[in-house]
Design brief:
The complex is a heterodimer of chains A (291) and B (195).
Chain A lengths: L5 H14 L3 H13 L5 H19 L9 E9 L4 H17 L26 E7 L4 E8 L1 H4 L3 E4 L11 H15 L7 E7 L3 H10 L12 H16 L13 E8 L8 E7 L4 E8 L2 E4 L1
Chain B lengths: L1 E4 L4 H5 L6 E10 L2 H10 L5 H4 L3 E3 L4 E4 L5 E5 L9 H11 L3 E4 L5 H10 L2 E4 L5 H5 L2 E8 L1 H4 L5 E15 L6 H18 L3
Parallel strand pairs in B: 1-2, 2-3, 3-6, 6-7
Antiparallel strand pairs in B: 2-9, 4-5, 7-9, 8-9
Helix pairs in contact in B: 2-4, 4-5
Classes of the chains: A alpha+beta (291), B alpha/beta (195).
Chain lengths: 291, 195
């Protein structure tokens, strides 16, 4: 990648993600909108959302003013240096903030001071992974604070919900997350679910599910069935877009698993608003592609 | 659709009902987490003239500075209102606020404030940041920018035809409570299923 200005390529990744909403998700929202009754609050909300998607894309303005937690997942060939990526990502984030693709969202816990440029302790959030491929993949996820507040983690059995250590128990706690969120996480939401692992690895995997596309079912038959059942159940709650009531409370549920410790059984649910944004950049030789 | 312009009288607000759609124009003020904490703990006077008979907007905008030093909103949808639940009723009472714009609705304590003082909760469309910014015609001023940071500062803005839905009114009606109640019945049914 000698011929590539990594910072500039990353700034473009951020611009695309923040302002140009994924076409597949736009189509999913369009069909949800057509499914709601004419003139209802739910329908008006989804129509407004669609109008906003088009405007943001055309004007390169952030789709949502909460440009989120900035998560970068970097996969790079063995032997590479992490510092190359950390420096370029940090510079790109600062530039993207100056260009108003991002809102300054990094606040110091002890002083309460906003750093003003999205950098700080663990900001942006970068995860590194060395792999055996000869190319670089950087996945970028912008997850809003309002919907992050709706994410949750359960340890089952859960007496109050009557949830045991099986997929039906998992189903119950995931529905609980959607129910508790009501309209507060900007429904219709997308729920990334990870079953098992420890608390940290579970939540991270739950978040990574948010890179999946609408209709992309798990390869595992039991998980795929669970995803479909959950989507139907959650939409049966009737919470609707923005919590106005209606048929669309979730756009997708994506499930995944990790082996667990015999004593534990965690279910991690990453609740994403309809407007969670992401993008993937691949660098092969001197060629950069965005997806 | 009803058209309202700030300042708004108590009587006008008391006539609004949950479910009404309205289009809001005039001067309003953004305030979110730190601003609410400040207003309740310190009761500052500098914000008083801007809030009386006006509307608070729960919003942390993306803002750009123009070459002439003025400001422009780039993206400015609502933030989740429930975080202001501990503070909002006191803010409404202290500053005689007539409306609160946000998303997701608010709870019982805020509802008491709306009923007692004559105010409404107005729902905007969450995530519609670019579209909502187009309703912001002018940024008049910004207060506490240095102390609170851009998303949390008090932005004094002039809006034009900001489309909103009344979801909590001054007679105690809440669409949020209605939806929660109905969904809670469905939730209990779903939780009882054995597969």
């Amino acid at each position: 990648m000698q011929g590539i200005d990594l910072k500039t390529a990353l700034t473009e990744l951020i611009r695309r993600s923040s302002t140009s909403f994924g076409k597949e998700w736009e189509a999913a929202i369009r069909s949800a909108s057509e499914n709601e009754e004419q003139g209802t609050g739910a329908r008006v909300a989804l129509e407004t959302i669609l109008e906003n998607i088009v405007l943001a894309r055309e004007s390169s303005a952030p789709l949502c003013q909460d440009t989120g937690f900035l998560n970068f997942f970097v996969d790079y060939p063995s032997g590479g240096k992490e510092s190359v990526y950390t420096e370029a990502i940090t510079k790109a984030v600062i530039e993207a903030t100056e260009k108003q693709y991002l809102r300054p969202n990094a606040v110091d816990i002890l002083t309460g001071k906003n750093s003003g440029n999205n950098t700080g302790v663990n900001a942006p959030i970068i995860s590194f992974h060395q792999w055996d491929n000869d190319y670089i993949r950087i996945r970028f996820l912008q997850k809003g604070g309002g919907c992050e507040n709706c994410s949750s983690q359960y340890k089952i059995p859960d007496t109050a919900l009557g949830a045991g250590r099986d997929l039906n128990g998992v189903r119950k706690v995931v529905i609980d997350t959607a129910f508790k969120a009501q309209g507060q996480g900007c429904a219709p939401g997308v729920l990334g679910v990870a079953i098992g692992g420890d608390r940290a690895s579970g939540m991270k995997l739950a978040k990574e599910q948010l890179f999946r596309k609408p209709g992309e079912r798990s390869n595992d038959t039991a998980l795929a069935e669970l995803e479909q059942k959950l989507l139907k159940d959650i939409n049966g709650l009737g919470i609707g877009p923005m919590g106005f009531g209606g048929k669309t409370t979730a756009l997708e549920v994506f499930a995944s698993t990790l082996h667990r410790h015999p004593a534990t059984y965690y279910v991690s649910v990453a609740y994403a608003c309809w407007a969670y944004r992401n993008g993937i950049m691949t660098i092969k030789g001197d060629e950069v592609t965005y997806a | 659709m009803l058209k309202l312009t700030t300042p708004i009288s108590e009587q006008t607000v008391r006539d609004l009902r949950a479910g009404d759609r309205l289009s809001l124009s005039g001067r309003i003020v953004t305030a979110r987490d730190s601003a609410h904490k400040l207003m309740v703990e310190k009761r500052p006077d500098f914000i008083r003239p801007y809030l009386k008979d006006s509307v608070i907007y729960h919003c942390g905008p993306v803002v750009a500075k123009n070459p002439d030093g003025t400001w422009r909103f780039v993206s400015a949808g609502p933030t989740t209102s429930s975080r202001e639940e501990p503070y909002e009723a006191d803010v409404i009472k202290e500053y005689q606020v007539r409306g609160v714009i946000g998303k997701g609705g608010m709870g019982d304590k805020t509802m008491e404030g709306l009923v007692k003082c004559g105010a409404v909760y107005l729902h905007a469309i969450g995530g519609a940041g670019a579209l909502t910014a187009k309703c912001v015609k002018k940024v008049e001023d910004v207060l506490m920018l240095e102390e609170l940071g851009s998303p949390e500062a008090f932005w004094i803005i002039e809006v034009e035809n900001f489309p909103l839905v009344v979801t909590m009114d001054s007679t105690g009606n809440s669409l949020h409570k209605d939806v929660e109640k109905a969904s809670s019945v469905k939730f209990k049914e779903l939780i009882q299923q054995s597969k």
